[in-house]
Amino acid sequence: MTLPIKADFPPMEALLVNEIPTGDHWQYEPKWDGFRCIAFRDGDSVELQSKSGQSLGRYFPEIVAAVAKVKATQFVIDGELIITLDGEPSFDDLLQRIHPAASRVAKLATETPARFIVFDLLVDEQGKENFSELLKKRRQRLEAFAKKYFPKTANATIELSPKTLDAAIALEWLNDPSVRLDGVIAKRLDLPYRSGERDGMQKVKKLRTADCVVGGFRYASKGNVVGSLLLGLYDEEGLLNHVGYTSSFNEAEKKELTKKLEPMIKPPGFTGNKPGGPSRWSTKKTSEWEPLATKLVIEVQYDHFTGGRFRHGTRILRWRTDKKPKQCGFDQVTNR
Question: pTM value?
Fold first, then answer.
């Protein structure tokens, strides 16, 4: 048996936008906080491909086994690998899977098993390509495929991703803090699968805010001006822990910040976890940091908080002169 597409097939990608698009040619799905994955089944052969074209099979043996158990012997499905702990998505646990030791991967696969949330059918069980069909038809075929072949048990290893044609429901997914999603995906019903392209799918991320203490700063690589602010949150022991950074300011703002912050340089800044040291991308100047008297609070916008820190850089919203630094705790981010 031979599939009509091979395991280097680029997945359709999404364009990041600020608002959910509306109209009768859009379908909405949850945006999962996981690893994109295309699963290829060809007889006894199973291959899992990442968004970048790398093989994921050795890191997720439980997903390989689940795909191999599907009664259909030829198909290609597109979806997301996720791990949840106590109902919460855990991207950190996914990252731990990328480990060179097979014994370690096998142990994690048992302790924190992954799930495969499927949202597209690229090749059907007859081995016929489906990706040239419009999404409206592809989704119908996917739902029929899932009904026939996916496990019917709760918390199954492979499951069908929900979808809606109602933008109001998608907006609820985005705005309801009790809905543990990464955001919303909007797909064009009137387009085929746009391999490697971003014109058939858009994504709106669920963004959150937190008030943080400015515990220090780093100078920019060029010029004697502030390059980034180092953010901190207090733990239950009263220690200020470094949790991330923000650098969302222009050149004029950098100069003003430098005038404001240099007189406030005062150790120790962070009293708990401190900013990391140099990396291969940093220079001696940018890897060093200046501690500040813990007097300043800013509100920032972020997308994810995992492993005790913001996963990406944050965006400044405003200075919180009305808030005391000691009020900036981890409760803001651990309960979201």
Answer: 0.76
Nearest to 159 by CA among 147, 150, 170: 150
Distance CA 127, CA 73 (A): 9
In this predicted structure, what is the pLDDT of residue 236? 93
End-to-end CA distance of the chain: 47
What average pLDDT score do residues 21-48 get? Answer: 95
Do 264 and 293 contact (CB within 8 A), yes or no? yes
Element (H, E) at 93: helix 91-96
> Which of these, 318, 157, 190, 189, lies nearest to 246 by C-alpha position?
318
CA 34 to chain centre: 6
- Domain shared by 286 and 314, yes or no: yes
Distance CA 68, CA 298 (A): 51
Does residue 324 sit in the same domain as residue 247? yes
Query: CA 58 from chain center: how many Å?
Result: 21
> Mind telling me the catalytic residues?
31
Q: How many domains does the chain have?
A: 2
Q: Which two tokens stand for residue 245?
A: 């950074």
CB 163 within 8 A of CB 27: yes
Residue 335 pLDDT level (bands cut at 50, 70, 90): low
- Mean pLDDT over the full length of the chain: 91
- Per-residue pLDDT, averaged over 21-34, amounts to 95
**Does a structural domain hold residue 5?**
no
Cβ proximity of 242 and 269 under 8 Å = no
> Reduced to 3 states, what is the DSSP secondary structure of residue 268?
coil
Which residue, chain included where needed, has tokens 């943080």?
212
How far apart, in whole angstroms, are the C-alpha atoms of residue 304 and residue 313? 10
Q: What are the backbone angles phi and psi of residue 124, rounded to the nearest 5°?
A: -85, 180
| Residue in 287, 267, 144 with CA at minimum distance from that of residue 219 | 287
Same domain, 156 and 244: no
